[in-house]
Amino acid sequence: MQELFPSSPLQARRAARVLVDGLNDMVLDYAVPEGMEGVVRGSRVELPLRNRHATGTVLQVVEDGEWEGQLRPLARLVADEPVVSPVLMDIAEWAARYYAVPVEQMIRCIVPEPVRQERHEEKTRKVVVLVQMPDDEKMNKINARAPRQASVLRYLHASEGRREPLADLGGTPALNACRSLEKQGFVRIEEEAVHRDPAGKEEFALSQPLQLNEEQAAALEAVNRAVDARSTKPLLLQGVTGSGKTEVYLQAARRVMDAGRGVLILVPEISLTPQTMARFKSRFADIPGAVAILHSAMSDGERFDEWHAIRKGRARIAIGPRSAVFAPVQNLGLIIVDEEHDSSYKQENSPRYHGRDIAVLRAAMEGATIVLGSATPSLESLHNAHTGKYEMLRMDHRADGQRLPLTRVLDMRTEAKDKRNLGILSERLRMAIDDRLHKGEQVILLLNRRGFARALQCPDCGYVAECPHCSLPMTYHATENRLICHMCGYRAVVPNRCPECHSDAILLEGYGTQKVEMVLQRCFPGARVRRVDADVTARKGALSAILHEFRGRRIDILLGTQMISKGLDFPGVTLVGVLNADLGLCIPDPRAAERTFQLLTQVAGRAGRGDVDGEVIIQTYSPQATAIQFARHHDTDGFSESELALRQQFAFPPFTHLAVLTVRSEQEELARFSIATLYKRLRAALPPAVEITEPMPAPIAKAHGQFRFQCIIKSASSRLVADTCSKEIANLHHGEEITVSLDIDAYSFL
Ligand code: ADP
Ligand code: ZN
Ligand code: ZN
Q1: pTM for this model (two decimals)
Q2: Which of 283, 365, 357 is nearest to 319 (CA)?
Q3: DSSP for 505-534, written as a single string
Q4: Ligand 1: which of 246, 341, 402 to mutate, most ligand atoms within 8 Å of CB?
Q5: pLDDT per residue over 452-498, tens digit each?
Q6: 483 - beta bridge partners?
Q7: Does residue 377 have its Cβ closer than 6 Å to ligand 1?
Q8: Is residue 233 exposed (0-12), middle (13-18) or buried (19+ Cβ within 10 Å)?
């Protein structure tokens, strides 16, 4: 111990301000000893802390005179080069403040756990190369004296200068032979990094660039111009499904690569969109190792290797989901955010950052060009395009010349409500499925469902109880027997008859995938039905396995929530049914209509990719809802115009920022009391222009044994809200028995 941490403090010229791991953002100064000149902002270091060993990240290096007293020296510098680049350090600090989380939490996102812990040494192997062949006379001598050496030489000669793994030459016995040959100057033994490639042994045949159509050429031209000019003004590429956005990304990426710069591509989730990864791997198959893949199902070893391949510039294209926005791509020239509207870019637990927003920030900081692509852009991005913050690029036609599938909306109010089917499957949809199954084609059924908020809807006329102040559906709370608006806190009594048609069959309850699966098995006894839900996706690799089976046509009907709509590229699928388009609309969320529109549009653009024309059937109790009507006509402009007007009228995002403050506890009174205290202090501390609802039970009032209460905070600036909340939460001095969380720019209000 004594040796490791010399106790006599150093008379140092430089000191490092270190963010010590696991100490809740405590910063301590350490002397930088001689021989550790490589310590800079972003370095990872080991240091003595009392009498133990700790690790940390260097925030800053300061010169003599900027600290007091004598400092203990750093114990070790983890890598010669800083693990976190200066820009990523800036992003960590910026995001920590914006999302009101400790800087250390952001750094944990930037440096993957296996890299932080250095748990996985880079794997290496020995390879042998031929330097020169001995002449015939010498060769004969070797052959007589040491036959093994001779056979090694012949093997290497036959391999025409390739580097041969020692293992292939016969392992340890061959090593002695090679060592001896090396001494004689005939061969060289080298260490070579072995790369654990998550794409495994899969071979990707080189694909050639396609001849672009006019719309694609114009979009590519705009991207190229921005790259050349190092413009960081984001480009919003709105291109209908099948318009060939990926081809534009591929050709733009190639040009950036040729210029010696790096590319970062964000996708919603790799296991759901394996084709995007495959297309990049194929297109860049001529540059081995050029494309690095990052995804959630990777092993620590794979993650470690891919991270280092990117960090060292061996891989210059990185593809991954949300967290890949922090990938250490060198000399970054281009960032692409595919399906930029996708809500999986927002992290749902702390730190609750938005990957797309961080990507825009990173592009600006690194002088990179950023392209946000989608068939149905988020209203945030569309608004930024309207105000001139983003530049809009459009591709309005399909590149593959396929027709958009026929979309039918089935009015569930009039469809016979066959009690045998529990109101889940209309007769029309049942017959359509039957027909496809008989033809040996495949079916996808989607259940539009997020959370479990119960809204009040009349199954006879479609009436939904809405808040008069927010025009959003209200949520039913059984404990209070009240309807509550979760955006403004407005409460109303529960009508026992529908105010519109006086029907008394009024409470709508959601149903889960299991119930639907049961009905399907009863209606189609011979069909092979597979269900994808949260239970399935929680198991590593389970989802990819199901999708693989489905692609191989060993499943007839795939049933799942909106998550399976992302990778809808199955040639065998000719029918997509959306079972309950409404349920996604009936949640207290200003983006409910937007999400429903995006889901239906994506579905309608994807069904029927093979030779047979596709068909989409949407079951709904509210066929007149704008989200459903505009989606049916593939009218993104119409929808966004109407929805943006509504958002502006009710001061919802993108015109304001919404944050959710939640207090959870197993003890109901404690949670109630804590949120009330926080509310009072926040109300006093925040200017009157910031709206904050009085505390209310969350739409999901109890989960995992904990009672949940929340306040919604609406403001023009998230900064002020984050700063004030951090302070007040810290001042609350709450114990272990309650959990307080703050979600800045929230995407979920449940
Ligand atoms: P998006 O990403 O916009 O939904 P994709 O990039 O998947 O569209 O393209 C849809 C299909 O059109 C793909 O099969 C692709 O190979 C094809 N495609 C794209 N561009 C062209 C082109 N210029 N000429 C012919 N086919 C194209
Ligand atoms: Zn009614
Ligand atoms: Zn309201």
Answers
A1: 0.82
A2: 283
A3: --B-----HHHHHHHHHHH-TTS-EEEE-H
A4: 246
A5: 556 777 777 778 888 888 777 887 776 777 888 877 888 888 888 88
A6: 476, 492
A7: no
A8: middle
